[in-house]
Amino acid sequence: MQKTIYNTYKNPKYSTDHPHNQECIYCGNALTFNYIDSTFNISFEELKLDFRSYVRNMQSVHGLDDEYFALRQNSFEKENAYLGQCMICGWWKISQLYYTDSDWQLWQNFYECCGVIKNLDVADLSTPMSVLRSYLVARYEERWSIHPYKFEQLIADVFRDFGYSAVCTAYSRDAGIDVFLIKDKNIIGVQVKRYRNKIKIEQIRAFLGALLVNNINQGIFISTGEYQAGCHSLSKRFGIELVNGKDFYQRLKEAQLIQSNIDFSPKRIINSRLYYTGSCHMNSL
Ligand SMILES: [Zn+2]
């Protein structure tokens, strides 16, 4: 449910996250959690104040008595803060849990903050590749806006993570091959189409011709979209691998994990302030 909120907002200035969520809100990857030294102190009085908004909501829905929500100070207990990180796109959240109880109920109260992905001009050729890759994982629909040459470089970069040597050809005179991959003395020609339309069978034929001219017998055709009927059988016959937009997204995510160079600066935590995000009852209401 929480995810749909983020899909609505391109770049929410402030965002909160469901306390029990353990997935990246941008790419869906399971977060990696680590406890961190807590420097966030919420007083019992502060919690009580924040808890009021929650109580109002609960009473309007369930009509419960005030005593149900009367928090007891002697039960006020803090758990270490933990950091959840997405090792694929770099999104993070910090969460700290406070326990309290009242008559008949044990409460978990969450204070949190989380990262928000900045808008990035993906058409800008000077954007560092690592930044572009992380951004693209989180906002894969932006693939259509990346400069075609930059996209070829990105594909070369992703294949390097899988152990290939990769060379992009000159953009203006590529003669049908955009990237040369070399692994174990094998040369593979790659055609890259940053394309919304379905790839036509003629385009596969043209690629076959380009491979022939370059004396290469292995090829990979990568499209950001889909392929027309007939492309797959032709490709199979000539040993060409077809990669569609969905397949490439999967590879990009895997490559991010191989590279695993997510830069999380502790400074970002120091400058963070935790906000009350809600409470959860632990007994059944
Ligand atoms: Zn992510």
How does this model look, in words?
The protein folds into two domains: 2-117 and 264-281, no CATH class; 147-243, Trna Endonuclease, Chain: A, domain 1 (3-Layer(aba) Sandwich), CATH 3.40.1350.10. The two termini are 21 Å apart. The radius of gyration is 25 Å and the shape is elongated. Mean pLDDT is 85; it is low at 1-14. The chain is an alpha+beta fold and 285 residues long. The chain has eight helices and eleven strands. The strands form two sheets. Strands 1, 2, 3, 4, 5 and 11 form a six-stranded antiparallel beta sheet that branches. The protein has a five-stranded mixed beta sheet with strand order 6-7-8-9-10, with helices on both faces. The structure holds zinc ion (ZN). The site of zinc ion has 9 residues, from loops.
